[in-house]
């Protein structure tokens, strides 16, 4: 039985610090949003949850660190799914507390009162998520540890693809942050719930798809064949979120819609469509392999050498 490779201790420590740091920041929001005796109860609950999370993280982070130098990213996908699953649950409760405060026409006193301070806290929540979530993804992808990818150009191409994943994460987080940032007129309840859980699913699934593309190709990574994530992101992020933002802007007069990210979606649709056309053209230009010829070559090169019989001369009558 082959022994597992040793864990990369710096990578294990870095990923664990980043994940637990973002969790504790979300816990600080949850605790400060409550007052009086309820704050103590919430503090106890988040501490117990963090201890349980840390126990699971202790094993997952080590397993991720053991595969960081290989072509596998299976444990990285599991850790990402587990991290986002727990993180978004906390974000959901934070969002509900802000929604309840908006419904009562007051700001949360846990942030020293005052609408201005409360608005800064909401913006700070968006900033923290937009930093922590992409950084954790980049750490789990660990492109700098892919020593098996020899050509520098190929590694740079993979890095550019991971950059597109980070941009998509920021796009999804921006749309989700519109739910808790200061707003003049609230959206319908079903629209808010649909937006939150749609972003939740995208954050759970799409980065795992990107990591699985790297893992499935193994050592011989061919970047131009990693087309599953671009197709999914084109449909689920660039097209659907464009319609969601446009609908909120037209039907609900939502002034928080980011025009810059809507422009990014349009540009991404054009660029990815051109990339797909070029990829299809590249596949069409290449000559299809002739199976019979290849089999004959293999038989000739690898088969046993059979001596040819000498020609028999004709007998003269």
Automatic annotation (TrEMBL):
PANTHER family associated with the record: TRANSMEMBRANE PROTEIN 121
Family according to the record: Belongs to the TMEM121 family.
Name by which UniProt lists this protein: Uncharacterized protein
One Pfam family hit: CECR6_TMEM121
Record keywords, A-Z: Membrane, Transmembrane, Transmembrane helix
InterPro entries: CECR6/TMEM121, TMEM121
Signal sequence region: none
TM segment ranges: 12-30, 42-62, 74-95, 124-143, 187-206, 226-244
